[in-house]
Amino acid sequence: MILILVAVCAPLGNTCLAKGMTGFPQLTLAHPLAVFAAVFTPWVALGIALLIGFFASYLTALSWADLSYVMLATAWGNVVVELLARFCLHEQVSYQRWFGVLLITLGVGLVAPGPSHTVQPAPLNSGAPR
Amino acid sequence: MNLTSLPVFSAGFWAATAMIAAVVLSSTAGEVLTAAAMKSIGDLDEIRAHSGLKGAIVAVLTCPLFFAGVFFMAVAFFALLFTLNHLNLGLAGPATASLTVFTNAVAAKLFLKENVDRRRWTSAVLICIGVYFLAH
Question: pTM for the complete prediction?
Answer without folding.
Answer: 0.70
